[in-house]
Every structure is written in C-alpha cells, then in structure tokens.
Amino acid sequence: MNQGPAGADEALLGAAVAVRAKAYAPASSFRVGAAVLAADGRTFAGCNVENASYGLTICAERAAVCAAVAAGARQLVAVAVATDLDEPARPCGACRQVLAEFGRGMRVLLVGRSGAVVATTLDRLLPEPFTFDDVARGRSR
Ligand code: THU
Questions:
Q1: Closest ligand 1 atom, CA of 59?
Q2: Ligand 1 probe mutation, 30, 56, 85, 110, most atoms within 8 A of CB
Q3: Low-confidence ranges of the chain (pLDDT < 50)
Q4: Are strands 76-82 and 107-111 parallel, antiparallel or unpaired?
Q5: Which residues are catalytic?
Q6: What is the pTM of this model?
Q7: Cα dihedral 94/67/8/129 (nearest 10)
Q8: Which of 74, 66, 50, 64 lies closest to 18, judged by CA?
C-alpha cells in the first residue's frame, strides 16, 4: 500500500502548499512555497519573492529559513517544498547551502502537482557543504 506522509510531515507539507499561493513571481510565474520545521516544533513558511532586478530574487526556502532565524529558531529538522510540477523540483544549490547552516541532516520533503511526496535528506542533496569550520581553519593558519 502506498502510505501517505505521517501527521507532522503532513502539516509541514500543508504549510508549504498554502504559502505557495503567496508567491510573488511576475518574472517566471514559477511559484514555490517552503516550510521549515524547527527542533522546538515550530513551523516557519516562506515563498519566492522576485524582483524587477532579477538577481535579487529570494527563493522560498531561504525566505522560510530567514523567518525561522528571525523568530529565534536555529535548529531545523525538516523542510517541505511545494511546486506544481509533475515531478517535484529539488531546492537550488544556494538554498541547499543555506539550509545546511541550520540542520545538516534535515529531512527534505518535496511535493508537486499530484500531491505525491518525494522524501530525501539534505545530506544526500548537499553532502559536503562549506561551513564556518572552514572559515575558522582559514583564520587559524
Ligand atoms: N526558486 C525557489 O523559490 N526555490 C528554489 O529552490 C529554486 C527556484 C524560485 C526562484 C524564482 O523565483 C523561481 O523559482 C524560478 O527560478
């Protein structure tokens, strides 16, 4: 039997799907919603926010991370990302790096048009992130 996501995952996915409706994507029309789950149980959502100066665009995942950090949550255990593609999109490289800052092993749940969920981990998507340990090694040379 094809099991659906467990309750907590269902809620996180629901938050990602809901915030996707708020996406500001006049340039691409590609709407993305993301929700991160903090270790303390709180959920924070974000959508992509595009700009006429295209390079200033903020991805949904990074918007969700910023909302979490602004609320004092720095340990993230899961992220859900919603698009309307048939095969769910994976977070971009920049977002993988930013997510890794707050939860190297976090679970990653991806959902697309059909509602079918792809579950993976950030370790798998970004096995060797750059970290502040690298910065410290540079300083101590
Ligand atoms: N986008 C995200 O929000 N997250 C990603 O991981 C990849 C791309 C957004 C940025 C832009 O607004 C649109 O998708 C098309 O690139």
A1: 3
A2: 30
A3: 1-2
A4: parallel
A5: 61
A6: 0.95
A7: 30
A8: 64
- Are the C-beta atoms of 35 and 11 separated by less than 8 Å? no
Domain topology for 6-139: Cytidine Deaminase; domain 2 (3.40.140)
Using the structure block, give the residue that is written with the tokens 């924070």.
44
Residue to mutate, 24, 54, 57, ligand 1, most ligand atoms under 8 Å from C-beta:
57
**In this structure, which residue's CA is closest to atom 9 in ligand 1?**
59
For the chain, give every domain's residue range: 6-139
- If you take atom 6 of ligand 1, which residue's CA is the nearest one? 91
pLDDT of residue 7: 82
Alpha helix stretches (DSSP H) within 21-126: 60-70, 93-100, 122-125
